[in-house]
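Methods — Computational structure assignment.
A single polypeptide chain was analysed. Its primary sequence is given first, followed by the predicted tertiary structure written as C-alpha cells.
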Amino acid sequence: MHCNVRFAPSPTGIMHIGNARIAIVNFLFCQKNSGNFLLRIDDTDITRSSKESEDAILKDLEWLGIKHDKFFRQSERLDRYRDVMRRLINDGYLYKCYETQEELEFKRKKQASSGQSYVYDRSCLKLTVDEQNGLEKRGIKPYWRFKLPHVTITWSDMILGEISYNLANVSDPVVVKADGTFLYTFASVIDDCDSDITHIIRGQDHTTNTAVQIAMLNIIASKPTNIKFGHMSLLISADGSQFSKRIGSVGLNELRKSGIEPMAIMDMVATLGSNLNPVLFTKLEDLVQYFDITRFSTNSPKFDVNELKKLNKKVVRNYTYDEITTLGINIERDIFELVRQNVENVEEYTKWIWIFSENFNCEYKFNKEEKQALHDIIDDLDNVKYKTGLENRYILEPLRIALTGLKFGPNIAKIIEILGNKESLKRIQAAISG
C-alpha cells in the first residue's frame, strides 16, 4: 500500500509530547507503507505564528529523526485559498455573516438554556443584499461560513471503526475571518486535496472536524478523494487526569535537555495506546517493522515521564560501541564496555571519559578513617582485586571515591586495570595527602 501522510503543526508554541506523538505515528505509518511524508506549517494565524516556533519545530523533528519528503507553509498559498474562496462564493457554498462574538455567545446561552446543543442558526443567510450593504456601510466587516449539506457523513476509521455524524447537528464552520484570515479547516482541506493526501492520522478530538472536512472535500476536490482517517485517543497523565493542561511540562526541548534519547521517545510512542507489548529498539528500521496502527485502541493511554526515563536508560545501555561513537562520544572501547551499565543517558559517558583522563581531580575531602583505609591497601595495590577486604565497605567506598570521585560505579578491579597501577596509586596518594 502506498500512502501520502502529513504532519501539520502550527508554529505558535513549543513541540510537546502530544503533538510529537502525532508526528511519530504518521512517520512510522509512512515508513511502514513506503509512503511520502509531508510537513506542512499551518501558519495562517499571523498574529500567533512565529519564526522562532517554526525553527524549534523543525529542530525537534530533525532530532527525532523524522524526515519529510515535501515541505511548505500555508502562508505561501494564500492566493490558492482566495481562488477556491471565489469559486465557492459563486457556487453558493460560502455566505457572509456579521454577528459579533457577544451576539454569538448570546445565541449559545439561549440554546443551552433550552437544553439544546449549540448549532448556528444560519440567520445571516436570510439577509438581503441591501441589508448586507447597510451593515457594511456601518463599518461591520463580514466573516464567511461554509454552508454544510445536511447529510450524514460516515467513514471507517482506522482506529475507531465506523463513525457517523449528521451534519444537521453541526454548525456551519467559519472559514474566513473578517480580517481575511483563512481558518484551519478551509486551508487544510484545500492542501489535502492539492497534496493528494491518502491518510490523515490525528487526535480523537478531531472526529467532528473530520465529518466537516469530508463534506468540504467532496465539494472542493476537483477529483474524487478517498482519504482514510485514523483518530488516536488522547494522552492522559500518569495519575489519570487530563494531560493537555500540563502538556507544556514535557516539551521536546526539555526532554532533550534532560538526556532523553529520540529512540526512547519513538519506542514509547510506537506502542502507547495500542495492545502491542513495549519492545526495546535502538534502530528505527526495526521499530518500523514492529509498528502496527491497527493495534491501537480507543482507550486513553497514560504518559509517565518517569517511565520514559526508565526506558531511556535501557535504550542508552543497549547502544553498541559503534552507535555511541556515531553520536559523537569519543570514548575508548574498554572504558565503554566497563561503564555502559552505569550510565543513565549518553551525556554521562562524557563524565566517565573525564574520570579516566589524566585531568581527573577528586574534590572529595576524606576524613581520618577513610585515609587510614586507603593507607592500608596502598602497599598491596598489585593484588587489590584479589583482596577480600574489597568486600568491606570500610575499604571499598573510600577507594572508589579516590579513583572516580563517585560512591557507586563499575567493578573496582576493572577500574584499576584500565587506569593502571601508576595512575591508581597517584590518585590514592592524592586522597591521603589531601
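Note: The CA atoms of residues 118 and 380 lie 85 Å apart.
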